[in-house]
Write a structure and sequence with these properties.
There is one protein chain. With about 425 residues, this protein is an alpha/beta fold. It has helices at about 10-25, 60-75, 75-80, 115-120, 135-150, 185-190, 195-210, 240-255, 290-295, 295-300, 330-340, 355-360, 365-375, 385-395, 400-415, and strands at about 85, 125-130, 155-160, 215, 260-265, 310, 345-350, 380.
Amino acid sequence: MKKHSGKLNITAVAALLAALVLLLSACGAPSNNGSPSGNAQNNSAPEDLTPQGHGDTDGKDDQDDMCSQILAKMTLREKVGQMFIIRPDQLDLSIAPAGTHTSKNSKAKTLSPAMIKVLEDYPAGGFIFFDKNIESKAQIMKFTAQVREVSKYLPFVAIDEEGGKVTRLAGSTDKGIRVKTYKSMGAIGKTGDPANALEAGQTIGKYLEEYGFNLDFAPVSDINTNPRNVIIGDRAFGSDPELVAKMVCAFIDGLHESKVLSSVKHFPGHGDTTADTHYGMVAVKKTWEQLKEAELIPFEASFGTTDFVMIAHINLPNATSDGRPASLSKELITDKLRGELGFSGLVTTDSLAMEAITDQYSQEESAVLAVEAGVDVLLMPLDYVKSFDAVVAAVESGRIPESRIDESVLRILRAKETVR
């Protein structure tokens, strides 16, 4: 063994300092852009580390350890907030909650000082943008930059950009946005070539990254098996489970090239339905074994690749016994999706403002039931403030163990690390 000389090695010290800097930034670094004057959420304290830029997977153990350290310093409200992705409009408390989910009464194009103050009290973990939030290329890029700037931790900046009829940016040509458009994912599926799905994912991922988005609620992983379906149709790649599986995985690979997270939807399969959960309860009568033979195939194929699985609000009377919508079913999410099928990534609900949920549950109860079921991210509750407060109260009362919250938030922080 070489004997140390005892002299100060400047090169070694410099290398050590550089390594420490990298370690401290593994789960984030303070925003280089600063924050608006008076925003108390951003400061230089270690617990305010904010993931920025794009990272890689080297040093994953160190990164996970840093995420755990950040989690340990978060307040309960900060942790609960990480579990919500909301419309930016929902921070405008001058508008009735239902109004924030329409294009008539709320069309936020930026966050006002009052909305930023609400965010300080109710620190959402992410934002989802719709057509009404888009005015121009410059405006939406400024808006996505702003929500990053005013958030203490890097937020999910999300959008529904499936390609085809459900797009927000590609559908905004009247606002001066020029990106490649696609007829439908069904049309891509008909080519039978996953390379075309890969190209679509690459193209969409590239322009989403340019516009400031890091999460795409896509691809649709349902199989289009019912010709009377009113909500899926050619949003799906097709009716052949194996073909859809290949297309879904290729599309996700394309998104990931631009460090855009994916979310397969709508688990466990919305293709064999004739109604829309936006407007009420929808039931799928298949047994669990029948679902495994068809609808679940594309989802299972994506589990090693996708970042999120979005749970539909469909009822499954012959596949689960608890009588709850899939998005609130512990039997489906914890026992089957995580336990039996082994999915270890992030689980999100579909929008909790949809009538399949609001017709049956209060906002407070649906939020708590979703967390109890094993959901990591609660998407667009009808009333964000009531839902947030209900989850906090459930933890403080002991109904939900704080360790259950920690489990989800650690998954969230680790996912955000991949797009920092």
